[in-house]
């Protein structure tokens, strides 16, 4: 029942009971991003929605990884897309974090991350980086999770293709810089369930333009309490953050102050 309730918050009609706090790459301030450890920490902190990034290996396995290059997180050259799954699963993406306290943390498969979120009572917010729409749809179909996940991307052509594959899944269009007329026109044609924008680029006057699309608004990536408070007062529906516990406290305080 809790999952059904949370998913209903993303419907385009009712106003949210309270703004959502979305854990960015898991609880990435206290565990290495896009790992099972980060997802578990986000669940421990009570996150209702957990965002993670997905890329495709050379042989088509969908896995969690943000960066285009491997060096920052895996300490080697190359890309996820250049390696097969047999190699990717041997990478250590935890040893770089907090002086090696998460050494040995592996790259999770997409399917495993979705399961971990759902089993913990949270909605997976799946950010497409690479891989085709059909591959994402196959995994979500196999998990029978179409009504319990959200798929987002900066690649709006991917979102259109994914919607053709799985029209029942809610989608989020990510963006940055000016929300100009051309972008607004493209969004109008796409009709996303919500729009996720860089908080530093969005104007307060853009919010009603997002509403006119029939979409809700999320801001990324907000770790500062004052910035979160400002956007909550303006009417943002969701805050994407590395520190979900901190921003959850801001949301709670704002609700109590009303």
Keywords, please?
258 residues; TIM Barrel; 36% helix; disordered N terminus; 11 helices; 8-stranded parallel barrel; alpha/beta
Can you offer a commentary on this structure?
The chain is α/β, with parallel strands linked by helices and 258 residues long. The chain has one domain (2-10, 19-257): Phosphatidylinositol (PI) phosphodiesterase (TIM Barrel, Alpha-Beta Barrel), CATH 3.20.20. It contains eleven helices and nine strands. Strands 1-2-4-5-6-7-8-9 form an eight-stranded parallel barrel, surrounded by six helices.
What topology does this entry show?
Blueprint: H1 2-8, E1 20-23, H2 36-44, E2 49-56, E3 62-64, H3 71-74, H4 85-88, H5 110-119, E4 123-128, H6 133-142, E5 150-153, H7 156-165, E6 170-175, H8 181-190, E7 194-198, H9 207-212, E8 216-220, H10 225-234, E9 238-241, H11 244-257
Parallel strand pairs: 1-2, 1-9, 2-4, 4-5, 5-6, 6-7, 7-8, 8-9
Antiparallel strand pairs: 2-3
Helix pairs in contact: 2-5, 6-7, 10-11
